[in-house]
Specification:
Blueprint (H helix, E strand, L loop, with lengths): L1 E5 L2 E8 L3 E6 L10 H7 L3 E6 L16 H15 L4 E6 L1 H12 L4 E7 L10 H5 L2 H7 L5 H6 L8 H13 L2 H5 L6 E6 L10 H5 L5 E6 L6 H4 L1 H13 L13 H4 L4
Parallel strand pairs: 3-4, 3-5, 5-6, 6-7, 7-8
Antiparallel strand pairs: 1-2, 2-4
Helix pairs in contact: 1-11, 2-3
Length: 262
């Protein structure tokens, strides 16, 4: 286990590989652990990092640090302390919201963002996601296979106050308006069978600027990296292979993703 002290608090992280930096940010259920497979794939060309946010996994539990801004500060302090420059961010639900909060404040430090099952607004989040314990959600949102439950084993460590605080931030802020004109390439990925979120309407998808794009993965749920790791990792690899500044819409040129755009 690797850890770093940031502003007096312990932050747990793991790292693999060499190359350009990429940071994986987990969601409301679990910890860095469910990124292991994706990190291994990315590490063939990138230096892959995965963090436990405040209140999750083995990072400090402190209710004063649970807002989206404070979690974005964690990421900023981590990058500065580790001497990491411009970075690609891959975030899942809460992790995507933290990534976009970071993007809004430090956009010059972000090369691209891949946001998996990110709610565009508070109403998109299923009521059960807002109220149920993370351990219950882990069983609800996965196949309950031994591999999936092992990947989400840290659900028992989630501080419910961290979930509540971040949802309050989502409810209070129209985050998409704050980042849509920054020009940073963003790929939104949704599992078509996600029970936790209402997927964006076609109207919202059509209104995305040219440097943003959405792909729906057929048959995947809230954890596409666990539901279909081979498919998810192909998408991740293709997105990371785009030239810096290139729109993810160029990925439509590949038949693999044409069939999965809705």
């Amino acid at each position: 286990m690797s850890a770093i002290i940031l502003d007096g608090s312990m932050v747990h992280y793991e790292a693999l590989g060499r190359g350009r930096p990429i940071v994986f940010l987990h969601g409301w259920v679990g910890s860095w652990r469910y990124w292991i497979n994706a990190m291994q794939v990315a590490s063939t060309s990138f230096r892959a990092y995965a963090l436990d946010l405040y209140g999750f996994g083995d990072t400090t539990r402190d209710p004063l640090r649970y807002s989206l801004d404070q979690q974005a500060d964690l990421l900023n302090q981590f990058l500065e302390e580790m001497g990491i420059g411009k970075v690609a961010i891959v975030g899942h639900d809460l992790g995507a919201l933290v990534g976009f909060t970071f993007l809004k404040r430090f956009h010059a430090s972000v090369d691209r963002v891949m946001a998996i099952n990110c709610p565009l607004d508070y109403e998109a989040v299923n009521t059960r996601m807002r109220t149920a314990p993370a351990t219950e959600l882990a069983e609800w949102l996965t196949s309950k296979s031994p591999d999936a439950m092992s990947a989400l084993a840290d659900a028992s460590k989630v501080d419910p106050q961290a979930v509540t605080a971040s949802l309050a931030g989502l409810q209070a802020d129209n985050w998409l308006a704050g980042i849509r004109n920054l020009g940073v390439p963003c790929l939104f990925v949704y599992g078509s069978n996600d029970a936790a979120l209402t997927l964006p309407s076609q109207e919202k998808v059509d209104s995305l600027p040219m440097h943003m794009h959405q792909i729906n993965l057929e048959g995947a749920g809230h954890f596409p990296m666990l539901d279909n790791p081979a498919l998810f990792n192909r998408l991740l690899t293709d997105f990371l292979a785009l030239d810096s500044g290139a729109s993810p819409r160029e990925m439509q040129l590949k038949e693999e993703w044409k069939r999965r755009v809705r």
